[in-house]
Write a structure and sequence with these properties.
Elements (H helix, E strand, L loop, with lengths): L3 E2 L4 E3 L1 H4 L15 H10 L5 H4 L4 H14 L2 E3 L5 E9 L5 E12 L8 E2 L6 H14 L1 E2 L3 E5 L5 H6 L9 E5 L2 E8 L2 H12 L3 E5 L1 H14 L6 E8 L6 E3 L2 E6 L8 E5 L2 H10 L7 E6 L2 E6 L7 H6 L4 E6 L2 H9 L5 E4 L5 H9 L10 E3 L9 E2 L1
Parallel strand pairs: 6-11, 8-12
Antiparallel strand pairs: 1-5, 2-3, 4-5, 4-10, 5-12, 7-21, 8-11, 9-10, 13-20, 14-18, 14-19, 15-17, 16-17, 16-19
Helix pairs in contact: 4-5, 5-8
Length: 377
């Protein structure tokens, strides 16, 4: 049984901190050094000072100072929140993603209630654990997916998300709006609809496993919960984009791959890639101004898993095809592997089987913003 409940959120007081748009930022793991400096310059109270500090002790001091000064305030009552994200994807298409912001009961993966789909590494989890120990808060929300064809959760909560939102912030092509919901009947209906759901972590694997580790240390009732945005996989704006690999050195393709050169460049190769059955791996290799469709017709594996066995080195990632191609054309990279996005059905099948994909196999878009709400733990 998935356990969800309302919570007393900590949030910015815009009267003291300034406009919310200058205070929020994407998750720590997609912020580069140059972007971090831009967020730091946007406001002395930008959330980057908490999620990507120089040290966990610094984050603890900043968090405590902001609460003491009233920059951050705690809600008077518990609530769930309905969130709408209007965004333009890397493909140029405008969409809206909706979801419920809740306090989520932590469950070990062995129970099968909350399931991962990607692998994690120890380094980021240790850094996040140090931050959680220092601040005693979940500073950024997790994104989890559930399967609700009848849209019962949305029907329970969306009607209460009318009029002006309590919180609104824009970051790049994404506009985020939040409505506070305290109606006990609506919350109970949403809890009942989610009770039998099995949730898949879409974004935030490291932070979820960090929260589990923190709870194992603390062992309190409050440490057993964290902040999550729950999004329905059925028709509520959930989008997965591919994460292309840009490499400093292109490895030798082994005999398991079939390589078909494409005279029309990456556009023609990507069009051909779309026509390849997802039953076997395929991707596009672009280098030296030439593109080729690469397939592994004898395999039954995810595209990213087949690519991983090549042992890529000097890898950077981007969801944007034009950026990947430009990096190669500029000579800053030798080649780019352009991938298809996995389907939500593939992600759920991997999670159902108790397996995991390579890191950066999925790019659920847009990223959830940090700084809209904080969850004490």
């Amino acid at each position: 049984m998935a356990r969800v409940k309302p919570f007393r959120a900590v949030r910015y007081d815009e009267q003291k901190a300034g406009p919310l748009g200058s205070l929020v930022a994407p998750p720590y793991d997609v912020i580069g050094p140059e972007q971090r400096e831009q967020y730091l310059a946007s406001s002395p109270y930008n959330v980057v000072r908490l999620i990507l500090p120089d040290s966990s002790d610094e984050a603890a001091q900043v968090f405590a100072d902001w609460k003491r000064e009233g920059i951050l305030t705690e809600e008077d009552e518990e609530a769930v929140w309905w969130q709408r994200q209007d965004y333009e994807g890397p493909d140029g298409v405008s969409r809206t993603r909706q979801g419920a912001v809740v306090s989520l009961g932590l469950e070990p993966y062995s129970k099968g209630i909350v399931r991962p789909h990607e692998r994690t590494h120890a380094g980021p989890k240790q850094t996040q654990l140090d931050l959680m120990r220092a601040t005693h808060a979940a500073l950024s929300p997790l994104l989890l997916v559930y399967d609700d064809a009848a849209a019962e959760v949305r029907h329970a909560l969306e009607s209460l998300a009318e009029g002006e939102p309590l919180l609104s912030a824009q970051d790049g092509p994404s506009t985020n709006r939040l409505w506070r919901i305290t109606d006990p009947d609506a919350i109970a209906a949403a809890q009942n609809a989610l009770a039998d759901q099995r949730l898949v972590i879409a974004d935030g694997h490291h932070r979820y496993e960090t929260a589990l580790n923190y709870h194992e240390e603390q062992g309190t009732e409050q440490s057993g919960w964290t902040m999550a945005v729950l999004v329905n996989s059925h028709g509520e704006g959930l989008t997965i984009f591919p994460t292309h690999r840009v490499v400093g050195r292109v490895p030798q393709l082994d005999n398991g791959f079939r390589v078909t050169p494409m005279s029309g460049g990456p556009e023609q190769a990507l069009a051909a890639l779309e026509g390849v059955d997802h039953e076997h791996p395929a991707f596009v290799l672009y280098r030296g101004g030439e593109a080729a469709l690469v397939e592994a017709p004898g395999e039954r594996a995810l595209d990213a898993a087949a690519l991983e066995r090549l042992g890529l080195e000097q890898v950077t990632y981007t969801p944007r095809t034009d950026e990947a191609v430009a990096l190669v054309d500029s000579g800053r990279a030798e080649g780019a592997f352009l991938l298809r996005p996995p389907t939500i059905e593939q992600v759920e099948a991997v999670a159902d089987a108790g397996e995991t994909m390579p890191q950066k196999s999925t790019y659920f878009y847009p990223k959830l913003l940090s700084g809209l709400l904080f969850h004490p733990v």
